[in-house]
Design a protein that fits this description.
The structure holds two protein chains of two kinds. By secondary structure, chain A is an alpha+beta fold. Chain A has a single domain, classed as Winged helix-like DNA-binding domain superfamily/Winged helix DNA-binding domain (Arc Repressor Mutant, subunit A, Orthogonal Bundle), CATH 1.10.10. Chain A is 62% helix and 21% strand. Chain A has six helices and three strands; from the N terminus they run H-H-H-E-H-H-E-E-H. A three-stranded antiparallel sheet of chain A has the order 1-3-2. The radius of gyration of chain A is 15 Å and the shape is elongated. The N and C termini of chain A lie close together (11 Å). Chain B is mostly helical. Chain B has one domain (15-215). In chain B, 76% of the residues lie in helices and 1% in strands. Chain B has eight helices and one strand. The two termini of chain B are 31 Å apart. The chains are: A alpha+beta, B mainly alpha. The A-B interface holds A 21-22, 25-26, 28-41, 46, 69, 72-76, 78, 91, 94-95, 98 and B 1, 4, 7-12, 14, 76-77, 79-86, 215, 217, 219-220.
């Protein structure tokens, strides 16, 4: 039981937050996506999504790049290799804990 | 953990949010059906027997660039852009190419060996329906009607009398009764599946366009 609690306590807090977990899981399955796709899939508003993405960017898990599609500005997002590793580790630990 | 697993599946299902996977499949099926019909209803030395490879390449190009154009102008501005993982993209291309190539290869092998194609063809149809159910119908409840239509279509074809199947392709180039039956079976399969996918993909695209709107430019 103690071991379980320790495993849960060891979970990556950045990823463990439900909103960020959604973002990381969605980005894990692809090479990259734009802001609009994440907004559509998560159902979050622009401000909430931006703040979660900033937190993930600070942690070095997400890379954000600004580009243009035709004349429309586009924000492209992808998981860094550190983000991928962190998510894999998070899933492994969660499996152990459950 | 299941919720995380379902999130990981979301980008895969997103590919068909606009029905493009089904429309691509329908173009392949109906394109091959047309080619097969032309081949079975023309003389053995007609041009239709020599363009199979060009037809395959042409169909793949139409599907590739057609899908890209619709995604770029309709899907990405409304619900966003996704860059799929290269490994997954490669695997999908290989599977789609293999399936598309399987039809003419099966036709040639079957006709040379005089197989009774009805049973394997019905099994192939059931496998196709199961694959459709797993890959496309899971997240969309009304698409289970499509799965049942495909299953029913396979079973109907499997139980159709040989004469009926043979009559569909009964011409000079398919003069042998076994060959005619084989060609008729595949022709019927491609036409039925192509039509089902066309209807289902068309409804998906219509629903998608109707229920989604591109956000105002500053929202991007």
């Amino acid at each position: 039981m103690n071991q379980r609690i320790r495993t849960i306590a060891d979970l990556d807090r950045v990823i463990h937050e439900p909103g960020r977990l959604m973002i990381v899981a969605l980005l894990f399955a692809v090479d990259g996506s734009d802001f609009l796709y994440l907004q559509h899939e998560t159902g979050m508003n622009k401000g909430t999504l931006s703040s979660h993405l900033s937190r993930l960017e600070e942690a070095g898990y997400v890379e954000v790049s600004k580009t243009y599609r035709g004349k429309v500005p586009q924000t492209l997002l992808c998981l860094t290799s550190a983000g991928r590793k962190a998510f894999e580790q998070y899933r492994r630990k969660l499996k152990e804990a459950l | 953990m299941d919720q995380v697993g379902s999130l990981l599946d979301r980008p895969r299902f997103y590919y068909n949010i606009d029905g493009m996977a089904e429309l691509g499949g329908s173009v392949t099926c109906l394109g091959y059906a047309l080619l097969l019909w032309l081949q079975t209803h023309s003389s053995a030395n007609s041009v239709w027997h020599r363009i199979s490879i060009f037809a395959f390449v042409g169909l793949m190009l139409v599907i590739h660039y057609g899908t890209k154009a619709i995604k770029t102008h309709i899907t990405y501005p409304r619900t966003g852009f996704v860059e799929y993982r290269k490994r997954y993209r490669r695997l999908t291309t290989i599977i789609a190419g293999a399936l598309a190539a399987l039809v003419p290869v099966g036709l040639v092998i079957g006709s040379r060996r005089h197989w009774d194609i009805t049973t394997p063809a019905s099994l192939m149809g059931l496998v196709f329906a199961a694959a459709y159910a797993y890959q496309i119908a899971r997240p969309v409840r009304w698409k289970w009607v499509v799965v049942w239509a495909m299953t029913l279509g396979s079973l109907v074809i499997a139980f159709l009398p040989a004469d009926v199947l043979g009559a569909l392709a009964n011409d000079s180039s398919a003069a042998h009764p076994v060959r005619a039956k084989l060609a008729g079976t595949i022709l019927l399969y491609l036409t039925i599946y192509g039509t089902i996918l066309l209807i289902s993909g068309g409804i998906s695209l219509w629903l998608y366009v109707r229920h989604t709107q591109a956000p105002a430019r500053e929202d991007q």
